[in-house]
Amino acid sequence: GNSVTQMEGPVTLSEEAFLTINCTYTATGYPSLFWYVQYPGEGLQLLLKATKADDKGSNKGFEATYRKETTSFHLEKGSVQVSDSAVYFCALSDPGGYNKLIFGAGTRLAVHP
Amino acid sequence: NAGVTQTPKFQVLKTGQSMTLQCAQDMNHEYMSWYRQDPGMGLRLIHYSVGAGITDQGEVPNGYNVSRSTTEDFPLRLLSAAPSQTSVYFCASSQAGTSGDTQYFGPGTRLTVL
Fold this sequence. Notes:
The structure holds two protein chains of two kinds. By secondary structure, chain A is mostly beta strands.
């Protein structure tokens, strides 16, 4: 079946460090791919998305490229800030129909000054 | 726009009790869904609806009922609460049920079943 695997956390970084959070997926067909972010005590917010192979999603300095050949959608940011501390979820939208999201387990990021 | 709203924010139940988690959206979205979030497991789909009067099961539907009588509201009912239903519940909506549509999430309801 369809699934998403993302790197386990927590990830602890100093401010201005480079961030990579790995995400790989298994799916039949061509899913859409998403990164959602959850700040403490809040619901999930869409961070970025890509709907077809080789698309790059970007927002707030974060980027991820839809790589069909490696079934990956790794999240990157060149210089993290303390305010980026949150839990990040990689997800895919079931290509079999409707907008059913399948999530990875989430990666907690802690950024220290 | 208020977006997606959920009530209550917190709830404690005893085993066997029933309750309804409320979800409403004011964006005229056709597609709505319920997820539960458990530690180390991400979010899992409970039920979804592609429009008023139409609902279907997700990955983990047992113990939950839904109905969709209006476009705006999508309540989730726990018929007889069990400790395994202790979780954080999120409601989400999107413009249509098309793969790739952005889903907007509510703030969540934290449920504890004793």
